[in-house]
Amino acid sequence: MHIVADENIPLLDAFFAPLGRITRLPGRQISREHLLDADALLVRSVTRVDPQLLADTPVRFVGTCTIGTDHLDLPGLAAAGITVASAPGCNARGVVEYVLSCLLTLSERTGLDWRTRRVGIVGVGEVGGRLAQTLAALGVECLLCDPPRANRGESGFAPLDQLLTECDVLSCHVPLTHSGPDATWHLLDAGRLVTLRPGAWLINSSRGPVIDNHALKAVLAERADLQVALDVWEQEPQVDGELLQRCALGTPHIAGYSLDGKLRGTEQIYRALCASLGVPAPLTLQSLAPDAGRAQLQFAADTPAQWLLERSLRQVYDVRDDDARFRAAMLPLAGQSTAQAFDALRKGYPLRRECPEVEVRHSGQEETAALLAAAGFKR
Ligand SMILES: NC(=O)C1=CN([C@@H]2O[C@H](COP(=O)(O)OP(=O)(O)OC[C@H]3O[C@@H](n4cnc5c(N)ncnc54)[C@H](O)[C@@H]3O)[C@@H](O)[C@H]2O)C=CC1
Ligand SMILES: O=C(O)C(=O)[C@H](O)COP(=O)(O)O
After folding, report:
1. From the CA of 87, which ligand is nearest?
2. What tens digit of pLDDT does each residue of 41-73 get?
3. Do the Cβ atoms of 34 and 4 come closer than 8 Å?
4. Less crowded by CB within 10 Å, the N or C end of the chain?
5. Which of 253, 257, 342, 347 for a ligand 2 pocket mutation test, highest count of atoms within 8 Å of Cβ?
6. Where are the domains of the chain?
7. Where is each D-isomer specific 2-hydroxyacid dehydrogenase catalytic domain found (predicted)?
8. Phi/psi zone of residue 197: left (φ > 0), alpha (ψ -120 to 50 degrees), beta?
9. pTM for the structure as a whole
10. Per the CATH hierarchy, to which homologous superfamily does domain 2-86+258-289 belong?
11. pLDDT of 330-346, one tens digit each?
């Protein structure tokens, strides 16, 4: 078989070469002409896939090595009889660690302890659910908003407008949807943004258009009290430099960019393709992934528990590094296209592991061990 794939999918050869011939392409450049003799298409979030792209091609399987599916025309592909697979939860852990790093950074800058802030989580699925669990285990109070789950009779959810007025931090983890009663396009519009609590922290690592970026820029011009962290942008890969300058933290859609998360995404799509072909899927990440080894951190006996936790989280992932690289690449481009620089930052993203891959050695007491375990570290 012939597989056309985004060149930024890691371990492509290792997983897919046994199934057929692979053609690698930059995701944004994949066109119908590339697919004229392809049987399967493997993409990431930057390739829009709809029936037009696949028209009169033999492609019968589309796999996206991502959680989000808003770049796929799901109803259109289903109507065309195409099998579609995504990678639910693959990089959810990375996004949780991005949010934790934002909390630590905003805490340090404002002098407000992140553990005493009430956090509103909008969208409580793979990412929001893990974030809620982690924060609760760390002793942080959370309010949860998920109308689709609430409408299915699940309890424990509050309306978005309550989160806006009662939470010190709002973190968005919804899919981007354009229709239906719970559509998320411009979920945070001008009317809602102005109701954010004084001094609120707003974090968006879902999809850019979930927040009306034009309205956000206007609100930030009036409200210096707000701290905003954006990982995703409404016109991505085009970035509004003025909005970036008004944000406390800005990054190029890398919240979930841990090596572990990307590899899980590839493995999930390998299994889905094998299932659709009706063949066994003998390969696993464990057998194939280059053994990066487990990183180790070592702390002195008398290190205070919260300091040790924060230091460990920073070692695993520090959003300030991504923010600095992003500003250095984007801000000199005022008035020009940021697309190339945006994609280059993502393509050349540094190696990043997740907390469960890092062993923290310490001789602290129970409180230290409990905090580290709550954050997901191994001992
Ligand atoms: N920045 C990044 O690197 C990454 C971004 N993402 C984005 O995060 C999104 C969420 O990921 P998951 O949690 O894995 O998805 P998920 O599908 O597991 O959960 C999404 C949750 O949002 C809820 N929801 C839908 N509409 C809502 C609304 N109007 N208000 C509140 N809740 C609503 C759903 O009921 C569901 O529980 C993805 O769709 C993707 O766009 C995901 C991974 C990495
Ligand atoms: O999984 C998702 O959903 C994401 O947003 C991915 O982290 C996006 O990564 P790329 O597919 O754009 O490399």
Report:
1. 2
2. 999 999 999 999 999 999 999 999 999 999 999
3. yes
4. C
5. 253
6. 2-86+258-289, 91-250, 295-375
7. 33-256
8. beta
9. 0.97
10. NAD(P)-binding Rossmann-like Domain (3.40.50.720)
11. 999 999 999 999 999 99
